[in-house]
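User: I'm writing a tutorial on reading structure tokens. Could you give me a worked example: one chain, its sequence, then its tokens, then a sentence or two explaining what the tokens reveal?
Assistant: Sure. Here is the example chain.
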Amino acid sequence: MLRHITIPRGPIELVADLHLPDDIDASVPLRAVVLSTPGSSVKEQIGANYASRLAARGIAALVFDPAYQGRSGGEPRDLEDPYRRGEDISYAIDALSTIPGIDPERIGVLGICAGGGYAVHTARTDHRIRAVGTVVASNIGSAFRSFQPEGPVTALDALAGARAEETRAGELSRVNWLPDTLDDAVAAGLTDIDTTQAITFYRTERGRNEHSTNRRLSRSDSLLLGYDAFHLVDQLMTQPLQVILAGRIGNTGSYENGMQLWKLAPNPVDLMVIEGAGHYEMYDEPEYVDAAVDRLADFYSDNL
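And here are its predicted structure tokens:
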């Protein structure tokens, strides 16, 4: 069962889908999970794959388009602000906790890829979140810092100059999250399996969605370079934690990030490595997604 809702977020609204079990006992309030999705994705993509499966296992699941992206409100478009992505999760919990039939005392979060880092960062200080699940979680800040060939400080200097030029010109610039086609990737010398699988998911009929632009506002990058999704996790994130990793270690850093999170967390409950799976195969390959959701459903049932 799917219900389309809007979430008030200050002066704008987030557009969301609430996935509900088909058979609901109105006398028993539901456990619920808010999903935090990867950078550049919209709710109909990876989030829906997990939310629909959680609902089939009796857990309500809310997935939303982040502010400034997809069909949610907010200007400028295509902004990827990691701090506001965390606030989106808290606003989603505000809305979810007022929906009849949802138990506000049994709300968890599930973060995937960059959304895993956003979920963890939010759970540190929003203790309405009772349990934290992650799938191929990425600390997007450390990832962006590692991608800079001349180092993050040089990159920040260049971004400062670019933003000054944008201000003078009165026009915002955008960059691609990924090459738009496999041919573009080859031309750029990006032929590794993770980049290829990411393009195959996001930019072909396999996973493409018209509301996912594959564009990021350039000024987002200075925010991402200064962000650490796991800052103070060891002191503040006391909730039970589930970590699910792809067994094929690629260049996304999610395996390393997931292991780091597991070691940092004060209350790690379960660690699962799905052998044979790559990072992007965890987005939609039924064999791997079903295995992850089976484990997540047990985790949420035990901890919510």
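What the tokens reveal: Strands lie at 2-9, 12-19, 30-36, 60-64, 102-112, 129-135, 174-176, 215-217, 241-246, 268-274. The chain has a mean pLDDT of 97.
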